[in-house]
Design brief:
By secondary structure, the chain is α/β, with parallel strands linked by helices. The chain contains 15 helices and eleven strands.
Length: 384
Amino acid sequence: MVRVVGIDPGTASFDIVLLDDGYIVGEKSIPTPDVARDAELVLEAMRELGKVDAIAGPSGYGVPVTWNKEIVDPRKFAVEVLLLSTEEQLARGMAAGEIGVMVYQALAQVVVEFWREKLPVVYIPSVILLPTVPFHRKLGRLDMGTADKMALTLLGIHTYSRDNGVDPRQTNFIVVEMGYGYNAITVVKKGRIVDGLGGTMCCKGFLTQGPIDIEHVILGGEWDRSDVFHGGVATVASIEDPLAVWKEWMKGKEPAYSIVESALEDLSRAVYGMSKLHDIRTILLSGRLSRVNEVRSSVLERLSELNVKPLGLLDGAKISKEAAQGYALVADGLLGGRYSHIVFLNQLAEARGTVVDYAIHPRLVPAKQRIRNAYKSSVRTPKL
């Protein structure tokens, strides 16, 4: 029997899930700003859960399967490899009170504390690192779905298989994740993740703008890490509560009406495009915003030609988000537990390289080298 923990570093909260032999026996949610101020809160939660065999730690943009004992420089590993950031960027974002950077700071601090405590933590891949995704789909990409999106998609393989009474190899669906910060899409065919559009590539999210015209990038000049958390619905509507924005949209009030319409069209375009490309009509909805009735209803209306249903949760789930459950499922599977067939099917252990390996623009050569060097110098045996 395997006893494992999954941790999802969400924009609003760090969710923690404890699995024993594949079943949820404990859950906890800690506000992310609290974790950013005191990473010890997560360690205390770990102690309360007791001895575990593995902890799937918050993995940011993803990394080949890496155990805590393999890390030699946890701060560099967290900031530069998992978060693709620099200490200077984090310092500026924290000074400005950026909620997205608070998530990054909290994640980095937790990684360091886990390393100091020598806990059995494992960091996991994102979508682009999976061998199940064809090489040609990776070219020119980075964010095809961060580690949490990959993990919750594996959860979807389990719940779809369970709820429909089919083998995981018979599952074909598209996950639409609607978080507070980002939207994202992942595609599953025959039980394997084969494609994805991450939050910065998919469409407008509540916080992030998503894809951005390169002419805007040029006009904007110098950009900072915190800029990724701006330009979405909240920026244009000047309202931080999703429900409040959607109520303004329902009344036809500007500017909320136009930016929500834009975001819904973006999402519809991306989902229908993926559906057509992969010949899949089943959509599994996930994420914080998908649980807001007004948001979910507007999305269901736009995707009415498709078969849309909730992603589903592990047995015993009460408060934890899908991503945290997915993280725990991955930890269980990596240790040969109840969900090992799903993890094995998606070849997580064979993931190699860094998420910047597929960048093709000449301007990105220095950044690719910097991040690859950070990876090589922060772990004992880099998997390149």
